Amino acid sequence: MTFDNINVSHLIVFFAIYSFMGWIIEVVYRSLTQRQFINAGFFFGPFIPLYGFGAAFIIFIDFLIHAWPLPFKILVYGIILTAIEYLTGYIFEKIFKLKLWDYTNNKFNLHGRVCLLFSVFWAIMALAFVTFIHPAASRFMQSIEPVYLYAFSIIFLLYYITDFVFSIASITAFRKKIAYLYSEYFNLSNAEIENIFDSFKRLRTAFPNLSRYIDNSINAEIKNKISSFLKSLPGKILPVANGRKPVEDEFYEIIHDIYEHEEFLKLREHYHHNSSIYEHVMDVAYVSYKTSKYFNLDYRSTTRGALLHDFFLYDWRNHTEPELHEAKFHGTEHPKIALNNAQKHFELNEIEKDIVIKHMWPLTLVPPKYKESYVVSFVDKYLASREFVKKYNSKVRKRMKRPAADHSIREKRKRNKNLQHEE
Ligand SMILES: [Fe+2]
Ligand SMILES: [Fe+2]
Question: How far apart are CA 399 and CA 397, in angstroms?
């Protein structure tokens, strides 16, 4: 098919076919890499316009350079498609302030919008496209009555404009919701926050970078709000942690139904940092109890939430345990498992639930809602890192002993040699 016998309806149908093929490529690639079905692209329907435009450019360029030697042609395809990809990324970032894809972690990338590996991939795809796909599509097109092509192109165009308008509206709504979350975060209920996050689930799964974007922006905002509060914590925690009394009636009264519960006692059998989970959660609960009392917070909820925060009964280094599925990541999964276990055996209020489910923040996307949760999250990290440092130091000390011994042996040998010489 040459340019002479191509009309507008041909162009629209080509555009539809190639946008659809692009969608299939992206769906297969993303579903495989993310191990679940992903409806790729920012359109609701099964079309990715970027591929349609890319194909149009390649057809046009190929018309101009089809007599060139193959290596030059591949190079030109690569450059053209890379330029289109870069421009699309740039426009989205400028207009919507969103990074829909990000190659920052790939080698030889330019501003994260394009990278060498994918440019090579695009060039190879373009070659396959002009050699096999486009000729086949052209033959198919010629076999169809022009009136059908005409009807299809009108229906497609109407559909396309509608989808485009709704998709732009959904991206705009997403931006608004994020802004709303920033400003109202501490006034919203957990259910409302959950609802907002769920409402753009499709966009988030289609563009994994959006999650990182929300994460960075929201967390930066929330971090600002609570940073002064958090900054004052280490100074308070240290004396509290060091001045622990073996028995404190109120503390044990608050947790009386939990810490001797048959199921909860099983935590003794599971190893955490360098102690059992039971010891770890008791430590975290105690320091959180003292800290939140100091700050006049709801120390009862803080203590109970802190005690239940790691209520998971498996070895987190062993992913074959039945409670944690192999494909899942302990860091983000165990708060859910802990909450589930806790609710099976105890009554939890909103603050306690928030403490358990958000204690891994900022590893998990949604930040805590209550000051009590920040206390526990902070104390947990603080004590865990202390436990880690202790363990590390004892390892280093053990290792340090060996070279010291060698050193003294070497000294002795030297001294012996000197003595022999003197003799
Ligand atoms: Fe934890
Ligand atoms: Fe913990």
Answer: 5
DSSP for residue 367 = P
Taking only the tens place, the pLDDT of each residue in 349-393 is 999 999 999 998 877 777 888 989 989 988 888 887 776 666 656
Threshold 0.70, pTM exceeds = no
- Peptide bond before 362: cis, by omega within 30 degrees of 0? yes
Ligand with smallest separation from the Cα of 383: 2
Outline which parts of the chain fall under CATH 1.10.3210. Answer: 232-387
Measured in Å, residue 90 CA sits from the centre of ligand 2 at 42
Question: Of the bound ligands, which one is closest to the alpha carbon of residue 334?
Answer: 1
- The answer to whether the beta carbons of residues 54 and 83 sit under 8 Å apart is no
- In the structure, ligand 1 is a single-atom ion and the residues with CB under 5 Å from it are 310
Nearest alpha carbon to residue 197 among 220, 180, 221: 180
Nearest-ligand number for the alpha carbon of 285: 2
Rg of the chain's alpha carbons, rounded to an integer? 31
Query: C-alpha angle 363/366/372, rounded to 5°?
Result: 90
Q: Please, which residues have CB less than 5 A from ligand 2, an ion?
A: 310, 380
Burial tier of 271 (Cβ tally within 10 Å: 0-12, 13-18, 19+): middle
pLDDT (tens digit per residue) in 126-159: 999 999 999 999 898 888 888 898 999 999 999 9
Residue range 178-203: average pLDDT? Answer: 73
Classify each residue of 363-395 as buried b or exposed e, where b means 16 or more C-beta atoms within 10 Å of its C-beta. Answer: ebbbbbbbbbbbbbbbbbebbbeebeeeeeeee
Which value, to the nearest 10 degrees, does the dihedral of the CA atoms of residues 88, 176, 222, 302 take? -130
Residue 192 Cα to ligand 1 middle (Å): 25
Look-up of token digits 């009386």: 256
Its CATH class, for the domain covering 232-387, is mainly alpha
Residue 305 pLDDT > 80: yes
CA dihedral 215, 221, 225, 231 (to 10 degrees): 60
